[in-house]
Design a protein that fits this description.
The complex is a heterodimer of chains A (91) and B (196).
Chain A lengths: L3 H11 L6 H13 L3 H24 L10 H16 L5
Chain B lengths: L12 H17 L2 H17 L10 H23 L3 H8 L22 H5 L2 H13 L2 H12 L4 H8 L3 H28 L5
Helix pairs in contact in B: 1-2, 1-3, 2-3, 6-9, 7-9
The chains are: A mainly alpha (91), B mainly alpha (196).
Protein backbone atom coordinates (compact mmCIF):
# COMPACT_ATOMS: atom_id res chain seq x y z
CA UNK A 1 0.00 0.00 0.00
CA UNK A 2 1.13 3.55 -0.63
CA UNK A 3 2.28 5.62 2.33
CA UNK A 4 0.54 8.66 3.73
CA UNK A 5 3.17 10.87 2.17
CA UNK A 6 2.53 9.38 -1.24
CA UNK A 7 -1.19 9.56 -0.70
CA UNK A 8 -1.08 13.27 0.12
CA UNK A 9 0.99 13.92 -2.99
CA UNK A 10 -1.62 12.17 -5.05
CA UNK A 11 -4.39 14.10 -3.33
CA UNK A 12 -2.69 17.34 -4.22
CA UNK A 13 -2.08 16.18 -7.78
CA UNK A 14 -5.69 15.10 -8.15
CA UNK A 15 -6.72 18.69 -7.56
CA UNK A 16 -4.81 19.70 -10.66
CA UNK A 17 -5.38 16.88 -13.09
CA UNK A 18 -7.09 13.59 -13.46
CA UNK A 19 -4.95 10.84 -12.00
CA UNK A 20 -4.22 7.76 -14.06
CA UNK A 21 -6.46 4.88 -13.13
CA UNK A 22 -3.89 2.86 -11.21
CA UNK A 23 -2.96 5.73 -8.97
CA UNK A 24 -6.53 6.69 -8.47
CA UNK A 25 -7.31 3.22 -7.24
CA UNK A 26 -4.23 3.18 -5.04
CA UNK A 27 -5.30 6.43 -3.49
CA UNK A 28 -8.88 5.25 -3.00
CA UNK A 29 -7.72 2.17 -1.18
CA UNK A 30 -5.40 4.17 1.00
CA UNK A 31 -8.16 6.58 1.88
CA UNK A 32 -10.40 3.73 2.92
CA UNK A 33 -7.81 2.30 5.26
CA UNK A 34 -6.28 5.45 6.66
CA UNK A 35 -7.72 7.61 9.39
CA UNK A 36 -5.65 10.72 8.74
CA UNK A 37 -5.41 11.14 5.00
CA UNK A 38 -9.16 11.63 4.54
CA UNK A 39 -8.73 14.59 6.85
CA UNK A 40 -6.07 15.96 4.59
CA UNK A 41 -8.36 15.50 1.63
CA UNK A 42 -11.07 17.45 3.42
CA UNK A 43 -8.59 20.15 4.28
CA UNK A 44 -7.62 20.43 0.64
CA UNK A 45 -11.20 20.77 -0.51
CA UNK A 46 -11.84 23.40 2.09
CA UNK A 47 -8.71 25.21 1.06
CA UNK A 48 -9.90 25.28 -2.51
CA UNK A 49 -13.26 26.67 -1.52
CA UNK A 50 -11.60 29.18 0.73
CA UNK A 51 -9.27 30.42 -1.97
CA UNK A 52 -12.12 30.82 -4.38
CA UNK A 53 -14.27 32.66 -1.90
CA UNK A 54 -11.41 34.78 -0.72
CA UNK A 55 -10.82 36.16 -4.15
CA UNK A 56 -14.49 36.70 -4.88
CA UNK A 57 -15.01 38.60 -1.68
CA UNK A 58 -11.87 40.60 -1.94
CA UNK A 59 -13.14 41.96 -5.21
CA UNK A 60 -16.62 42.75 -3.99
CA UNK A 61 -15.80 44.28 -0.68
CA UNK A 62 -15.56 48.03 -0.28
CA UNK A 63 -12.14 49.56 -0.66
CA UNK A 64 -10.44 49.89 2.66
CA UNK A 65 -7.82 52.61 2.99
CA UNK A 66 -5.01 50.08 3.06
CA UNK A 67 -6.17 48.74 -0.29
CA UNK A 68 -5.83 52.08 -1.97
CA UNK A 69 -2.97 53.49 -3.87
CA UNK A 70 -1.15 55.95 -1.69
CA UNK A 71 -1.27 59.58 -2.75
CA UNK A 72 2.42 59.48 -3.47
CA UNK A 73 2.03 56.51 -5.77
CA UNK A 74 -0.86 58.19 -7.54
CA UNK A 75 1.18 61.30 -8.18
CA UNK A 76 4.05 59.25 -9.45
CA UNK A 77 1.86 57.38 -11.88
CA UNK A 78 0.17 60.55 -13.06
CA UNK A 79 3.55 62.07 -13.73
CA UNK A 80 4.64 59.00 -15.66
CA UNK A 81 1.49 59.15 -17.72
CA UNK A 82 2.01 62.81 -18.46
CA UNK A 83 5.58 62.31 -19.52
CA UNK A 84 4.60 59.49 -21.80
CA UNK A 85 1.68 61.24 -23.40
CA UNK A 86 3.92 64.20 -24.26
CA UNK A 87 6.61 62.02 -25.76
CA UNK A 88 4.06 59.86 -27.47
CA UNK A 89 4.34 61.50 -30.87
CA UNK A 90 8.03 60.68 -31.08
CA UNK A 91 8.31 56.88 -31.17
CA UNK B 1 -14.84 62.46 -39.64
CA UNK B 2 -13.79 63.68 -36.30
CA UNK B 3 -11.18 61.46 -34.67
CA UNK B 4 -12.30 61.64 -31.13
CA UNK B 5 -12.11 58.98 -28.50
CA UNK B 6 -14.80 59.84 -26.12
CA UNK B 7 -14.42 56.67 -24.15
CA UNK B 8 -10.89 56.97 -22.89
CA UNK B 9 -9.78 59.59 -20.43
CA UNK B 10 -6.17 58.95 -19.55
CA UNK B 11 -5.93 62.15 -17.58
CA UNK B 12 -8.33 60.84 -14.97
CA UNK B 13 -7.43 57.16 -15.18
CA UNK B 14 -5.47 57.16 -11.98
CA UNK B 15 -8.27 58.85 -10.15
CA UNK B 16 -11.03 56.69 -11.61
CA UNK B 17 -9.43 53.28 -11.74
CA UNK B 18 -6.20 53.49 -9.76
CA UNK B 19 -7.54 52.05 -6.52
CA UNK B 20 -9.47 49.25 -8.14
CA UNK B 21 -6.55 48.14 -10.27
CA UNK B 22 -4.24 48.45 -7.32
CA UNK B 23 -6.37 46.22 -5.14
CA UNK B 24 -6.71 43.70 -7.93
CA UNK B 25 -2.95 43.57 -8.16
CA UNK B 26 -2.42 43.61 -4.41
CA UNK B 27 -4.64 40.58 -3.81
CA UNK B 28 -2.50 38.69 -6.26
CA UNK B 29 0.96 39.98 -5.46
CA UNK B 30 0.61 40.70 -1.73
CA UNK B 31 3.26 43.36 -2.07
CA UNK B 32 2.39 47.03 -2.21
CA UNK B 33 5.44 48.18 -4.09
CA UNK B 34 5.10 45.47 -6.70
CA UNK B 35 1.39 46.18 -7.07
CA UNK B 36 2.05 49.89 -7.57
CA UNK B 37 4.59 49.12 -10.19
CA UNK B 38 2.30 46.80 -12.09
CA UNK B 39 -0.49 49.38 -12.00
CA UNK B 40 1.81 52.00 -13.41
CA UNK B 41 2.95 49.66 -16.16
CA UNK B 42 -0.67 48.96 -16.93
CA UNK B 43 -1.54 52.60 -17.37
CA UNK B 44 1.49 53.22 -19.51
CA UNK B 45 0.74 50.24 -21.70
CA UNK B 46 -2.85 51.38 -21.98
CA UNK B 47 -1.74 54.82 -23.03
CA UNK B 48 0.52 53.36 -25.63
CA UNK B 49 -2.10 51.00 -26.92
CA UNK B 50 -5.07 53.30 -26.69
CA UNK B 51 -5.66 53.04 -30.43
CA UNK B 52 -6.59 49.43 -29.81
CA UNK B 53 -9.43 50.34 -27.51
CA UNK B 54 -12.55 49.51 -29.43
CA UNK B 55 -15.04 50.93 -27.01
CA UNK B 56 -16.82 47.60 -26.84
CA UNK B 57 -15.83 46.93 -23.29
CA UNK B 58 -15.87 49.60 -20.66
CA UNK B 59 -12.72 51.51 -19.96
CA UNK B 60 -12.40 49.67 -16.64
CA UNK B 61 -12.73 46.23 -18.18
CA UNK B 62 -10.20 47.12 -20.81
CA UNK B 63 -7.73 48.32 -18.21
CA UNK B 64 -8.22 45.21 -16.07
CA UNK B 65 -7.50 43.12 -19.13
CA UNK B 66 -4.20 44.88 -19.59
CA UNK B 67 -3.46 44.55 -15.91
CA UNK B 68 -3.91 40.78 -16.14
CA UNK B 69 -1.27 40.62 -18.83
CA UNK B 70 1.06 42.75 -16.77
CA UNK B 71 0.54 40.48 -13.77
CA UNK B 72 1.43 37.45 -15.84
CA UNK B 73 4.55 39.24 -17.04
CA UNK B 74 5.38 39.92 -13.45
CA UNK B 75 5.03 36.27 -12.44
CA UNK B 76 7.07 35.19 -15.40
CA UNK B 77 9.81 37.64 -14.57
CA UNK B 78 9.98 36.80 -10.89
CA UNK B 79 10.12 33.11 -11.69
CA UNK B 80 13.20 33.77 -13.79
CA UNK B 81 14.81 35.78 -11.07
CA UNK B 82 14.45 33.28 -8.27
CA UNK B 83 15.64 29.86 -9.30
CA UNK B 84 13.66 26.80 -8.37
CA UNK B 85 16.63 24.70 -7.43
CA UNK B 86 16.49 25.70 -3.78
CA UNK B 87 12.95 24.43 -3.54
CA UNK B 88 13.82 21.15 -5.09
CA UNK B 89 16.75 20.51 -2.83
CA UNK B 90 14.82 21.40 0.30
CA UNK B 91 12.17 19.04 -0.95
CA UNK B 92 14.64 16.20 -0.76
CA UNK B 93 15.62 16.89 2.80
CA UNK B 94 13.30 15.31 5.36
CA UNK B 95 10.30 17.47 6.13
CA UNK B 96 8.35 18.21 9.25
CA UNK B 97 5.32 16.47 7.97
CA UNK B 98 6.17 12.82 7.51
CA UNK B 99 8.56 10.40 9.12
CA UNK B 100 10.91 8.12 7.25
CA UNK B 101 8.20 5.62 6.63
CA UNK B 102 5.95 8.18 5.07
CA UNK B 103 3.68 8.34 8.08
CA UNK B 104 2.24 11.58 9.44
CA UNK B 105 4.42 13.07 12.14
CA UNK B 106 1.76 15.44 13.34
CA UNK B 107 -1.81 14.46 12.74
CA UNK B 108 -3.68 16.75 10.41
CA UNK B 109 -6.64 18.29 12.18
CA UNK B 110 -10.21 17.20 11.59
CA UNK B 111 -11.65 20.42 10.34
CA UNK B 112 -15.23 19.50 10.91
CA UNK B 113 -17.85 18.35 8.50
CA UNK B 114 -19.27 21.66 7.56
CA UNK B 115 -16.83 23.73 5.60
CA UNK B 116 -19.50 26.32 4.89
CA UNK B 117 -19.55 26.97 8.58
CA UNK B 118 -15.85 27.60 8.77
CA UNK B 119 -15.85 30.00 5.87
CA UNK B 120 -18.34 32.23 7.64
CA UNK B 121 -15.96 32.93 10.47
CA UNK B 122 -14.05 36.18 10.41
CA UNK B 123 -11.21 34.69 12.40
CA UNK B 124 -10.70 32.03 9.80
CA UNK B 125 -10.14 34.58 7.10
CA UNK B 126 -7.72 36.50 9.19
CA UNK B 127 -5.69 33.36 9.71
CA UNK B 128 -6.00 32.38 6.09
CA UNK B 129 -4.53 35.69 5.04
CA UNK B 130 -1.70 35.41 7.53
CA UNK B 131 -0.91 31.93 6.31
CA UNK B 132 -0.81 33.12 2.70
CA UNK B 133 1.58 35.87 3.69
CA UNK B 134 3.72 33.32 5.50
CA UNK B 135 4.28 31.23 2.39
CA UNK B 136 7.55 31.62 0.53
CA UNK B 137 6.95 33.86 -2.47
CA UNK B 138 7.37 31.16 -5.07
CA UNK B 139 4.92 28.84 -3.40
CA UNK B 140 2.44 31.65 -2.90
CA UNK B 141 2.73 32.49 -6.59
CA UNK B 142 1.96 29.05 -7.90
CA UNK B 143 -0.79 28.60 -5.36
CA UNK B 144 -2.50 31.83 -6.25
CA UNK B 145 -2.16 31.31 -9.99
CA UNK B 146 -3.85 27.99 -9.58
CA UNK B 147 -6.41 28.68 -6.88
CA UNK B 148 -7.11 32.39 -7.24
CA UNK B 149 -6.70 32.78 -10.98
CA UNK B 150 -7.93 29.32 -11.76
CA UNK B 151 -5.22 28.73 -14.35
CA UNK B 152 -4.63 25.22 -15.59
CA UNK B 153 -1.35 23.66 -14.53
CA UNK B 154 -0.21 23.66 -18.13
CA UNK B 155 -0.54 27.43 -18.28
CA UNK B 156 1.31 27.88 -15.01
CA UNK B 157 4.11 25.64 -16.20
CA UNK B 158 4.57 27.72 -19.32
CA UNK B 159 4.33 30.93 -17.42
CA UNK B 160 6.86 30.03 -14.78
CA UNK B 161 8.99 27.75 -16.89
CA UNK B 162 8.51 24.72 -14.67
CA UNK B 163 8.52 21.03 -15.37
CA UNK B 164 5.44 19.04 -14.46
CA UNK B 165 7.21 17.41 -11.55
CA UNK B 166 8.47 20.70 -10.32
CA UNK B 167 5.08 22.30 -10.37
CA UNK B 168 3.50 19.30 -8.66
CA UNK B 169 6.05 19.55 -5.92
CA UNK B 170 5.48 23.25 -5.43
CA UNK B 171 1.72 22.98 -5.42
CA UNK B 172 1.97 20.14 -2.96
CA UNK B 173 4.24 22.04 -0.65
CA UNK B 174 2.13 25.16 -0.78
CA UNK B 175 -0.98 23.21 0.11
CA UNK B 176 0.70 21.20 2.81
CA UNK B 177 2.04 24.32 4.44
CA UNK B 178 -1.19 26.22 4.23
CA UNK B 179 -3.08 23.33 5.75
CA UNK B 180 -0.57 23.02 8.55
CA UNK B 181 -0.60 26.73 9.17
CA UNK B 182 -4.38 26.79 9.41
CA UNK B 183 -4.24 23.75 11.64
CA UNK B 184 -1.97 25.37 14.15
CA UNK B 185 -3.26 28.89 14.05
CA UNK B 186 -6.94 28.53 13.61
CA UNK B 187 -8.31 25.07 14.21
CA UNK B 188 -6.31 24.19 17.25
CA UNK B 189 -6.88 27.54 18.81
CA UNK B 190 -10.55 27.09 18.21
CA UNK B 191 -10.77 23.63 19.65
CA UNK B 192 -8.47 24.20 22.57
CA UNK B 193 -8.85 20.76 24.14
CA UNK B 194 -6.09 18.44 22.95
CA UNK B 195 -7.20 15.72 20.61
CA UNK B 196 -6.28 12.20 21.41
Amino acid sequence: MITCEEATRLISESLDRKLPLGRRIGLRIHLLMCKLCPRFLRQMLLLRNAAYQYREEKEKEALSPSDRLSLGAKEKIKQALKTHSVSKSSP
Amino acid sequence: MKEERQDLHPDIWVQDHGDVLFRYALVRLRDRAAAEEVVQETFLAALKGREQFKGRASERTWLVGILKHKLMDHFRKSSRESPVTDLISSEESPEDFFDRNGKWKVEPGAWGDDPGDVLEKKEFWKTFKECMVGLPQRLADVFSLREFEGLETEEIRNLMGLSTTNLNVQMYRARLRLARCLDTNWFERKEKEPQK
